[in-house]
Write a structure and sequence with these properties.
Blueprint: H1 7-10, H2 12-23, E1 28-31, H3 33-40, E2 48-51, H4 55-64, E3 68-73, E4 78-83, E5 86-92, E6 94-99, E7 104-108, H5 112-117, E8 127-128, E9 134-135, H6 141-146, H7 156-162, H8 165-177, H9 186-194, H10 204-215, H11 221-230, H12 232-236, H13 245-255, H14 261-268, H15 273-276, H16 281-295, H17 300-307, H18 309-322, H19 331-340, H20 347-350, H21 356-372, H22 379-383
Parallel strand pairs: 2-5
Antiparallel strand pairs: 1-2, 1-8, 3-4, 4-5, 6-7, 8-9
């Protein structure tokens, strides 16, 4: 019997939730990401619990145990139980009644096998009881996880037809948990290629959420290249090209630069990215700065002065892979110099001789001269 060796299994706050359900005569099982990640030795962020108890029973039992149930998704069988300040998502076993490729109509189920059969990938259909004993209802989850093989449960085409977002999840899970050398599951990839038109019916919020998660993986390049090959990338980001993503990831790793979804989006290019992925205004502005900076003639120090050291560093990485050139030899020094530079002239220094539009133009002219001097001209020299 495979067992989980992770602190959340024995944590008092979590055990209180499991015990409240089991003492009430119900099954309570850890499920999904917490089980998968614990077995992989990866970080566990969220605790999901599956149970045969219906939401009203979950609420009653956990309240009686002194916990705080919050009906966050009762219609879908989910109650968030807060124990010692920690949220636990408790969801009743479910089975799909009807699907349309975007949303599913579900009904409560009685067994863990029914609950497992409606999930997306075999590695996500792993459960564990309160003692950490792992259950594999589909029979292939543990072996697939050990091989880091991302595989749809049952027939891939059917799983995708239930929710076309699973196409993007297939590439995202491969990027995070798959074996890059072994490549993607052939049946799954073929099913994704056959169903890419279904992506057009998904909300842009859902697509943007998945793409951010995919591009934040340590190395999403092989998965994104496969997305492009099967047509999925062009469906969600027309005009995007994955060719330079692998060199960017390699350069990030060489320079110790943390993965970043927006930097990688800038590398991919594409049309109307902010709209298609529902980026926030802050994200959209940053993306515009990065893309514009690639072809900008400004040096590293000026970029750091105008946009900050982080953005300037990202732009230099993007320039390096775009133009197949080495990073500037003085990169770090220029980043610091530009980020710390402070323009020494203020509007008051030019008044009342200048005002209105003329004042703004003069300030801009002096700032250009100051930047051209590599920030060496002082206030007196500029005003003279």
């Amino acid at each position: 019997m495979t067992r989980l060796d992770h602190t959340f299994v024995t944590r008092e706050a979590t055990r209180a939730v499991m015990t409240a359900l089991s003492d009430g005569g119900h099954t309570a099982l850890f499920v999904g990401g917490c089980v998968r990640n614990a077995l992989l030795g990866a970080r566990v962020d969220d605790i999901d619990i599956a149970t045969d108890a219906h939401p009203d029973a979950v609420i009653a039992l956990t309240e009686a145990a002194g916990l705080k149930p919050v009906p966050t998704g009762v219609a879908h069988g989910t109650v968030t139980v807060v124990s010692d300040g920690m949220p636990h998502e408790v969801t009743t076993f479910r089975r799909d009644v009807e699907t349309d490729g975007r949303h599913a109509v579900v009904a409560f189920a009685d067994t863990v096998e029914e609950d497992a059969a409606r999930r997306d990938f075999t590695m996500n259909a792993l459960y564990a009881d309160g003692d950490g004993n792992v259950l594999d209802p589909m029979g292939t989850g543990l072996s697939d996880l050990s091989r880091r093989h991302v595989r749809f449960i049952g027939e891939a085409a059917r799983r995708i037809a239930e929710d076309y977002l699973r196409i993007l999840r297939f590439f995202r899970f491969h990027a995070w948990y798959g074996d890059a050398e072994a490549g993607l599951d052939a049946e799954g990839l073929a099913a994704c290629a056959d169903a890419i038109e279904g992506l057009a019916g998904l909300s842009r919020e859902r697509v943007g959420h998945e793409m951010r998660k995919l591009l934040a993986a340590p190395d999403p390049a092989p998965g994104v290249a496969s997305m492009q090959a099967c047509g999925a990338l062009g469906q969600v980001l027309p005009g995007a090209d994955a060719e330079r993503l692998a060199p960017l990831v390699h350069l990030e790793q060489q320079t110790g630069t943390a993965p970043d979804a927006l930097r990688r989006l800038a590398c991919l290019g594409g049309d109307e990215t902010a709209t298609r992925l529902r980026l926030s205004k802050i994200e959209a502005r940053r993306l515009d700065v990065l893309r514009a900076g690639i072809g900008d003639e400004a040096g590293t120090a000026e970029l750091a002065y105008r946009h900050g050291a982080e953005a300037a560093h990202d732009i230099e990485l993007l320039r390096a892979v775009t133009f197949e050139a080495p990073l500037p030899a003085t990169l770090e020094a220029d980043l610091i110099r530009g980020a710390e530079a402070v323009f020494p002239v203020r509007a008051a220094d030019l008044m009342p001789e200048y005002s209105g539009a003329e004042l703004g133009a003069k300030l801009a002219d002096l700032e250009r001269r100051w930047i051209a001097s590599q920030f060496t001209l002082d206030r007196d020299a500029l005003l003279a």
